[in-house]
Fold this sequence. Notes:
disordered N terminus; binds magnesium ion; two-stranded antiparallel sheet
Amino acid sequence: MALKCHDTPKNLPSSLDRVVLxxxxxxxxxxxxxxxxxxxxxxxxxxxxxxxxSHGNITLHGRKFDVIDTPGVNxxxxxxxxxxxxxxxxxxxxPASVIHVGDSKNLRRTLLITIQLAEMGLPVxxxxxxxxEARDRGIILDKDALAKQLNIKVIGTVAPRRKGIxxxxxxxxxxxxxxxxxxxxxxxxxxxDKIAGLLPDAPISGQSLAAMILSGDxxxxxxxxxxxPDTEIExxxxxxxxxxxxxxxxxxxxxxxxxxxxxxxxxxxxxxxIERRRSRLTxxxxxxxxxxxxxxxxxxxxxxxxxxxxxxxxxGTLVDFFEGVIFGKYLNPMFTSVVNLVVPFELLREMLVGxxxxxxxALTYSIAIIxxxxxxxxxxxxxxxDSGYLPRLAIMSNRIFNLIGLNGKAILPMVLGLxxxxxxxxxxxxxxxxxxxxxxTLLLALAVPCSAQLGVILGMLxxxxxxxxxxxxxxxxxxxxFVGYLAAKVIPGDKTEFFLEIPPVxxxxxxxILVKTVGRIEWYLKEAVPLFILGxxxxxxxxxxxxxxxxxxxxxxxxxxxxxxxxxxxGYFILGFLRRDYGAAGLFDMAQHGGxxxxxxxxxxxxxxxxxxxxxxxxxxxxxxGIKTAVAITAFIFPFAFLVGGLLNYVLLxxxxxx
Length: 659
Ligand SMILES: Nc1nc2c(ncn2[C@@H]2O[C@H](COP(=O)(O)OP(=O)(O)OP(=O)(O)O)[C@@H](O)[C@H]2O)c(=O)[nH]1
Ligand SMILES: [Mg+2]
């Protein structure tokens, strides 16, 4: 007899008003969440955009629902931290309905999740999204046949065009539990029932939990510990091992195969093929961007676009205009005369418009220098994110990353680190092992400059030369590989297999880019400007109390004698900890006003790139990896950055290279 998947769970917790969006990574859950709730959460074209849950509300016919967006899952037996978040949501409280968002292009993969939701005994609505892309590939799905087989509502959607969203809302009022039966081998079924009998009441069926346990799901242990005594857990584990002893292959494989077989059978009866009508250009871009040889010109093209748009246009043209004209010619002189006229105390005047003035320095740096750079960076970055290039970059760099014992999946958080290191540490949740997450966190903190910093650096390099740019890139990548290689040897654990779903190349949606950029700028203004003001105030105090000179003197053997930089840079390094871009902006300002030689510019750029993570990043590392790791990483990076700076200075001066 086949196991009935819709055995109703024993206990239904109180609230029935939860709607949970579940599905594979990068299928459009977040965009649908936005359409249902009117609340924007980040939408991007790579798997792993969402790593934490978001809540929003929707009211339908007077009934209010709490809608939850979750991280994408490949399986409801979690392999990584973000997948666990999703499974735990289902385990936490029984939802009124689950909207299972699937990719119409890949029904088989979608159904593997539907089957597990069915086993859990949850009410499901299946949203088959990306109908447009499926059609372009010649795939049409017979939704009625599917709905009949699964006994649930199946709705075709094209989220960016809002197609199907109204039907989805209507379906929410009346969800159904899918009825499916999976042909597990008799022995597996027996043990599923035996283990289910020992399990505590839960929002999802005992059978589904038992199947997870038989598949070797260690992440359930914590939950079991909370609900049943150790003796019961031991009994369950004994049953699991007993079941396994009857097979010469892992039970997890046997369970997966049975599900896959079912998914394939349903898929076979649902897909209709028509003629493809995909554009040749998209096919061409998809092929070349991942090719080991042709991929390189594409990569260089992408970098060139970045350099021109952010480094030349943002950090050059726009900053010149904002800093030189708007602030330099108009605002700062105006503020200075107003302050001099109105403010009676010399000290206060100096604090506002002096050498470390809150207006002349903090606002000029944050608004005139960093804002144009971050804005152009965010626009360029969103275009890359939405085009689907990032996962392709991961494939391209897989070989290089393999050298340092990481797999290409780690490139995603690293590239996101170019946007913001703090967010990137959070995204490292998509990595499967603690070791990969730790290595990535270390390399992020050490060698990946964040957007604002990168923009300033590109601007300074632009003012130097191509040679300096190449030396900077070479040094940073070299250091990253070197430290990564050593760290991979020291940090225990095995290298994991590389598995990353590659999304199609898509034309970026202008609206999404605008919404994302505006959101990020807003976040930047809220987060950065107050810290720039605080940082400048600290500098002002240190300066007034004559402590800055003292600190410069103490640091002088390292900063001046060893690394060869002017003493004034000490202050910028101190503030680099508050925000890395503040440090970089200070150096930028010095270089622009002739305070740094070419060698000093390059050396200071390398040092500040490697320099310790900013405060926000530091706190995120504490949150995700623990205080010990955060302190250890910082304690390593601090002297290391200066060491590399000093060595580079030595080599540049010795070799007499003209930058
Ligand atoms: N052509 C097309 N693109 C879509 C459709 N739905 C979503 N997208 C695009 O698919 C990408 C992924 O969308 P998201 O909403 O971020 O997907 P997600 O499921 O939340 O992804 P994760 O959070 O990474 O699991 C974005 O680039 C969307 O613009 C669709 O129906 N058609
Ligand atoms: Mg998402």
